[in-house]
Specification:
With 289 residues, this protein is an alpha+beta fold. It folds into three domains: 72 residues, no CATH class; 73 residues, Fe-S cluster assembly (FSCA) (GMP Synthetase, Chain A, domain 3); 104 residues, Rieske Iron-sulfur Protein (3-layer Sandwich), CATH 2.102.10.10. Helix 1 packs across helix 3. The longest helix has 49 residues. The radius of gyration is 22 Å and the shape is elongated. The two termini are 29 Å apart. About 9% of the residues have low confidence.
């Protein structure tokens, strides 16, 4: 499920559509004016609240930490953090997950039409097989932090070619990447601070860790022997998880990089923690073991 604000917004849209069907365009227009008036009314009150507590920034910071309140501040243009900073912060959260799909992503700014421009750099920025994962991760991260944007444009990203009649793959050709979709994680399944948890979602076995204020998600399989990593809480010490099968250690903060210098790393799963909740991007089909 989404945030409370999302649920209310969807309900309002549904009721307006229902009113349009029942009462016609005139009734729908009146209802929209009423909704707009109420939004402006509560927005004015929220503006006054922000002005009153303006001398105590720590209180405003505490309000922003609440996702519902943050969504309201964004809606009325009252968020204390400017949009550029919010976008950069959102990109910092997903950059570790883009490591195997793109060399990096640069924020170029917002144009006069309200469209945010980004550029993929290095790696396989023109690789069609990574298009779905990269686009899904970047767009969800940026729009979650700055929903007031009119759109997002990503340079250096190859579009997936039009689907043609295909009997099968040629020798050595990789399988097409399944479409990734975002799924919310239930609060009851999430680990405590400094801990990790095994979470299965749509056939995907995930290791989710909470280190400080940050969340991390990986495929729950050792890059050395394939063993499950989340079998024991004792396997996680600080930022490092140790495989109890082959004793290989991986740094969860460094994109799951192995500590032995072999270049191996865990398979990161895109994870977002924003006004929409904690979500992971998983493909339609389970990842092969």
């Amino acid at each position: 499920m989404g945030t409370e604000a999302d649920d209310i917004g969807e309900r309002v849209e549904s009721l307006l559509a229902q009113l349009a069907r029942q009462g016609g365009k005139a009734a729908a227009a009146t209802a929209e004016d009423l909704v707009r008036l109420l939004v402006d009314f509560y927005g004015s009150g929220l503006t006054r609240i922000v002005e009153i507590i303006g001398s105590a920034p720590e209180l405003l910071d505490a309000l922003v930490e609440d996702r519902l309140v943050e969504s309201q501040l964004i809606l009325h243009g009252l968020h204390p953090v400017d949009i550029d900073t919010r976008i950069e912060t959102a990109l910092d959260k997903v950059r570790p997950y883009l490591g195997s799909h793109a060399g990096g992503v640069a924020y170029l700014g917002i144009d006069a039409d309200g469209v945010a421009h980004l550029r993929l750099e290095g790696g396989c920025s023109g690789c069609p097989s990574s298009t779905v994962t990269v686009r899904t991760t970047i767009e969800e991260a940026v729009l979650g932090a700055a929903p007031e944007l009119a759109g997002i444009d990503v340079e250096g990203q190859a579009e997936r070619p039009e689907k043609l009649l295909q009997i099968g793959r040629g020798p050595g050709q990789p399988a097409a990447e399944p479409a990734a979709t975002w799924r919310h994680l239930s609060a009851r399944d999430l680990p405590e601070p400094g801990g990790m948890a095994a979470i299965e979602i749509e056939g995907h076995a995930l290791l989710v860790a909470r280190l400080g204020a940050s969340w991390y998600a990986y495929a729950d399989a050792c890059a050395g022997c394939g063993a499950v990593l989340s079998g024991s809480e004792e396997a996680l010490v600080g930022d490092t998880v140790t495989c109890l099968g082959c004793w290989m250690r991986f740094d969860l903060r460094l994109a799951g990089k192995a500590a032995d210098g072999t270049g191996r790393h865990l398979s990161p799963i895109p994870l977002l923690d924003d006004v929409a909740g904690i979500r992971v991007a998983v493909s339609a089909a389970p990842v092969p073991a």
